[in-house]
User: What shape does this take?
Amino acid sequence: MMRKIIILIITVSFSFNCIAQGVIPKEIRNIGDQVDLDRMQAADGSRYINVKGAPYLTDFFVPATIYPDDDLFFVKYNAVDDEIEVKLSATKTIILDNSFKKYTIVFKESKETFVTLNEEGKNNPSYFIEVNKTDNVSLYKRKTKNFIQATKATDNYSKDKPARFSELEEVFYIQLTPDGPVKEVSKKKKTFLKMFQNNQNDVKNFIGKNKIKLNKEEDLVKLISFISTL
Assistant: This one.
């Protein structure tokens, strides 16, 4: 186990050093062959100027494997715009276009798996993090931030507020059928139960007996595991 950790650290350090020196490692050079660059956009860092905070989950690009390409790249997740940015070189970054191709991104350090899914009622796909995936019903979540515009003081007693990014928020989603759309988990038990008309009493009893809270990840994992057996 220790040997694997040391190898990973050496690999990551080497790759970052190569980027800094303008020498792109093989796995990053090959992204042009692995991912359809013609269907991507250039990442535009100028979209947010003089904003307090950052839109990303991580401060730096971190290693992750991108499927179906099955290669290691350095990436960052933009939690405001729901975008995966991929580092191609020291001066070039691209955004994965998941509107035509479904991606799975497995982050090496956090072990989180981001997948491309469609939310019910929305046309464009989004990235969701796998929480509890079963053959029947599955649980996902999104980590999101919001961009808040700057505001001017309204009187002599208030101050100008700079543009900023909100605190990170986790929102849970449920997938009722394999490969189907996901739907946001309601924190209201009555609304949540409407999704399970055929097993409403069983789900209701399980929630009550186990004191399930619909806003707690560990409780939702237990609940989805039970629902998958119905």
